[in-house]
Description:
By secondary structure, the chain is mostly helical. The chain has one domain (2-265). It has 12 helices and no strands. α6 (103-136) packs antiparallel against α12. The longest helix is centred in the middle third of the chain and has 34 residues, at 103-136. The two termini are 21 Å apart. The model is unreliable at 146-157 (pLDDT under 50). Keywords: Membrane, Transmembrane, Transmembrane helix. The chain crosses the membrane at residues 20-42, 62-86, 107-128, 172-197, 204-221, 241-261.
Amino acid sequence: MITLIKLDLKNCIKNEKFKIYFLSLLGICIFSFLAVCTDSFMSNSLQLNFPNKMGIMLGNNVHSVLQFILLTLPLIACGIYSDSFIYERDNNICVYYLARINKRKYFTAKMFSIFIIVFFTILLPLSINELLTLLAIPNVGVDHGYGLTVYLLKANASEFFLQSIYNGHPYLYNYLLILITSFYGALVAVIGFNISLLFQMKKINLLIYMFLGVNLTSFVLPQKFQIYNYIQSNPGNLSDFIIALTGWIVVCLISGTIGIWKETRS
């Protein structure tokens, strides 16, 4: 199975579509960084925020960029490689693989490779943005932007998601949000692949269904169970986040199990 995963990863990285998605996301993150630099140019310490709160994850001035990424996350995640089975099925490529290996191993390997490639495709651009911001913005700012004293900010440990970690390790907090975003995007990508196993559809239909389905959950689910709520560091507690994330993992596992079962019986 490891050989299959390596082969899938190699095929994906060589694909022009992957390069377009990765470079587009990287370009958005670089644009966000340049916007922060432009806005901060010639600012003094009274006008600067803390560097960890000026990156793409927590920056007020570039929050719209993060919202855009989250809105298009289903398209980015599923567009990278979730439609690979549709392509291989329509072009009779999978026949050559399935003639030599077990169907269950073939589809399981695809799920792992999709998860890995999407996870790092999201992780790297977001991490680069935070790193560039940390290196470029001097850590002399005192404008925390809340209109509250630092004492009150640190005393209110339930103000936003995992604030206790933010208070003690602010830069680690940013990367936790990036890891959550990457993990969630990878789950969405695998779910998209699973749906391509369950239903006969075109690539564009898969993207449309996943875009609508994932974003509609923001209106259907209570706010405390929305992953986007925690990625944007809104008020929330760890137990509700674990429930929300577990729910998406369960959907991923169930849809994958049913999809593999359907294909192995055909």
